[in-house]
Structure to design on (133 residues):
């Protein structure tokens, strides 16, 4: 079902500061995109076959703003790429893992995404992601 790690989501307060850090580490910024459904702005850095995704809240109501408030900046989610997101969600739920999103929603990068509930996944917020590029 899972093909690879699509990206690792890292919560930052200030996107520009985050971008500057990852550029210092030698990574190349691929693009910045706003995701209104999540109230975030994201910046992508390809690393081999996967990406680092910096996620900064654009509103205090963003789930990422709440994450930073509670746990501080840092690794926020791990996204796994799947071929068939609907089937993957169905299979995951049938195995007793709670879903945050029962149906796919639009994410950054024209991907369809859905989150699994961290209470079901040993505290890790996992995203299943159908890459459409
Ligand atoms: Zn993500």
């Amino acid at each position: 079902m899972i093909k690879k790690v699509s990206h690792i989501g890292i919560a930052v307060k200030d996107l520009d500061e985050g971008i500057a850090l990852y550029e210092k580490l030698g990574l190349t910024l691929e693009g910045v995109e706003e995701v209104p459904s999540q109230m975030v702005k994201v910046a992508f850095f390809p690393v081999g076959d996967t990406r680092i995704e910096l996620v900064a809240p654009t509103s205090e109501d963003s789930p990422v703003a709440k994450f930073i408030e509670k746990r501080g900046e840092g690794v926020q989610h791990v996204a796994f790429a799947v071929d068939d997101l609907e089937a993957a969600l169905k299979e995951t739920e049938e195995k007793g893992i709670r879903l945050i999103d029962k149906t796919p929603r639009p994410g950054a990068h024209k991907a369809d995404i859905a989150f699994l509930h961290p209470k079901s996944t040993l505290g890790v917020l996992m995203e299943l992601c159908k890459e459409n590029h």
User: Anything to note?
Assistant: Helices lie at 15-24, 63-71, 85-94. The domain at 2-130 is CATH 3.10.180.10 (2,3-Dihydroxybiphenyl 1,2-Dioxygenase; domain 1). The first strand starts at residue 2 and ends at 11. The first helix runs from residue 15 to 24.
